[in-house]
């Protein structure tokens, strides 16, 4: 019997090589030859799955969310909490730092590639909606200041974390300092429960 080939697995393997190169050298270092060498396969093999460099980059963009979702689940354990989700967005270890570098490289590419930009908008919308839903649930449970609008606060929190992530990447904010600032902001919107007399 002929061997069954998992084509999606092969595409994922190529996309992982793209991400490794992008983390190390940016997207300017990504070529069909470099990706083939990084993945340990032939250039023809890469071309079998992707007709062009642009096709390869566009596909690789669709794989960026996976690592983030794994980090969120690993940090949250039994249930996703807003704080855990926000901290998972920070480049606090080598893998998260590489993911942030790759995402930033693709973000620059998205400015001129509508398809990649669409992937970014979709991912951001899903993230924003998740944060808003978590905040709405916290408000319903009485854990959030009642005047906080979950949808607006989700946008603000993601903007805060985006800026902090860049600050950590550039080295003018430590991971601990970034977490402390997230905690400070969350403390301002968290409802203080009064002890009954």
Automatic annotation (TrEMBL):
One MF annotation (Gene Ontology) recorded for this entry: DNA-binding transcription factor activity
Protein keywords: DNA-binding, Repressor, Transcription, Transcription regulation
Pfam families per the UniProt record, alphabetical: TetR_C_6 (PF13977), TetR_N (PF00440)
Matching Gene3D superfamilies: Tetracycline Repressor, domain 2
Binding region for DNA: 31-50
Domain HTH tetR-type, chain residue ranges per copy: 8-68
Lineage: superkingdom: Bacteria
PANTHER family: HTH-TYPE TRANSCRIPTIONAL REGULATOR PKSA (PTHR30055:SF226), HTH-TYPE TRANSCRIPTIONAL REGULATOR RUTR (PTHR30055)
Protein name (Swiss-Prot/TrEMBL): TetR family transcriptional regulator
Naturally occurring in which organism (per UniProt): Amycolatopsis decaplanina DSM 44594
